[in-house]
Amino acid sequence: MEGISKISSHPTRFKHLSVSTFSSSSDMTHLQEDSIKNMISDPDIEELNLQGKNLTAFPSVINHLVKLRVLDLSNNSITAISDNIVNFVNLRQLSLHKNYLSHVPIIIDELANLNVLDLSSNQLSSVPATIVNLKNLQTLNLNSNQINIFPKPICHIPKIIKLEIADNNIHSLPMQISDLVSLNEMCLDNNKLTFLPIQFFELVNLTHLSLCENQLTNLSDRVEKLQEMQVLKLSKNCLESLPKELFTCVKLEKLLVDNNQLTYLHKHIGNLYNLKELSVSKNKLKKLPFGLSHLQNITILDASYNELQNIPIELKNCSQIVSANLSNNKLSEFPTAFSIMPNLLNLNLSHNQITYLNFDVCCMKSLQYFNISGNKISSFPIHLCKVWNLTYLDISENGMKDIPNDISQLRNLVNLYLQNNEFKEINKNICNLADLKVLDISNNQIKAIPTQIANLTNIIELNLSNNQLPSFPIEICQLTSLQKLKISQPFGAKLRDIPFEVGNFVNLQEFDIEDNEIPLLPNNIELMRNLTTFKAANNRIRQIPNFITALSKLQHLDLKGNKLSSLPRDFGRLKALEEIQLDANPLVKPPIQVCEAEKLFPIDEYLRCTAIRDKKLLEKIIKVITQKVSSEDFEHLCKKLHLPHENVALLSKARFDISCFRICFVEKISNSLERLVMLPHFLRFASRWFPSQDDVPEIHMGENMNFQVDQKCGSNVS
Description:
Blueprint: H1 2-9, E1 16-18, H2 19-22, H3 33-39, E2 47-49, E3 70-72, E4 93-95, E5 116-118, E6 139-141, E7 162-164, E8 185-187, E9 208-210, E10 231-233, E11 254-256, E12 277-279, E13 300-302, E14 323-325, E15 346-348, E16 369-371, E17 392-394, E18 415-417, E19 438-440, E20 461-463, E21 484-486, E22 510-512, E23 533-535, E24 556-558, E25 579-581, H4 592-595, H5 600-627, H6 631-640, H7 645-654, H8 658-668, H9 673-678, H10 680-685, E26 699-701, E27 707-709
């Protein structure tokens, strides 16, 4: 509350107050009324931010702030707007975004100076008729409410220039929509509109119109009236064609018609000479019109997920294109037009049927991002090695068998994806790519890693999964910059050990060794202090060493499908753990039922109680051994614990002095203690020394996964 006292002592200094600055975690709900008054005692405050304070009601203690011009009450739990709202006659901006409002009071019209009203993400089904009296309102946001019928009063707000009413359930627009003569921007995304009334096209001042995620089947030819239109978004509708009249709207700069049913584009699209961005992805286009080549200002073209078989060479005239996406089509040849675009930075031709990259590809001197994955290129195109500005290259999922030495010329590469090919080795020249940060060579037939890989001193992600490596590649253990390492082998040669050198991965955050045959984890994994995700599912791990509890940042641990029967006693020290997967293990301590929630708390609780139980059981065993066990039985017990002969001799001498024996016994069997207190056959072996099984302490589960040890096994031994 230090910030509060500062405000109180200098009340006239604050005209703009954000309470979140001063009470980050102490929500307004938990502050006393007088404390709130102290925070906002200055009546001259003009801007007040109370967002995210868990308010459940409109705060009455701000009623005196009559000079407020900006009030932000978003991200609270307010259910109603107080009638005291009328006090804020100077209010220009009011945000009640993300509350629980079900209605707006009719007195809202008293806020005559209001310019911006944000009522998005509430539970409104309508707005009051009096909203028309907000003569100065320019921006109204009603997104994400429960409005089924477009509120007609909105149509009569005289100065409104921006209207957002997306994410509702509106089926149609009223004829009165034409009265919004000043409207510049309108968003009706994610409603259920099937058509636009003819009156809609009287909104001749519209510059930005978004109608995405509706059910429009056609666009009226009256769209030609919208000559001021600069941005038109019609994504995710049911349009089968676009009217040629649309292409008279020559001020259009952005046209998005992706995710429709378009089978062709009209040749007059070339009239949109101001167009900068065009998206026609996820339609049914078989070709691009010649007129597209007239769009000399276009910078972004997305025609992915269509049925295009070729790209007209005339597209080269679109010399301003910076980014082009032609992925998931039926192209069989590299589109030469792109090699002549001097400003092209990003090109995606993935998942086509291209078999060869010709010499033209080396002309793309500016290209930085190139994705040619999922094609039918059997040989790494050597011409590609002359595209020297490449920083991102994805040539995965082809049929490539080798990598040319010239790949070392791509000195600016940061991301290189070579997975799902037929490489049998890693060309050592890749190791000369000093700027490389991400390398994926998974799903190949690689049998060895070159020692030169240590030269990749900047690499942060490496994927070697599903290869034919005979053992963990110790060569990569010098890559201390690694943050993400994946060697999962569901379809590759199985790893059977992890070398001690993995302790060098001091910056590693994600480590994936799933689907191998690893039985043990090396002790120095504890040096990976930055590890947040560890995946070792489907191995043969029998024991989690206690040192894993040193991984204080670990959030996700996947050990399902191993041979674990117990977890470390200090497992609860992994306080950052959010998800624990232990399915398909023969767990006894704790039982698998305790682990089903995949959360730390019940596991920690059970292990805590287990430790108490084991201590009691051990104490009882010590007393029984010192009082009731014969020399022959004692030697038999020591053999079961696999104790060396010299330890047996020492314990035999100390056996009848309980204090001395306790010290020696615990010290000598420290490595066998888990075996002693867990093996059921030991209790059966020792049953003749216990009068009944009731002497063995048990763990009981209470409500909310709370556990407790019963009070059996007292201090007296029968």
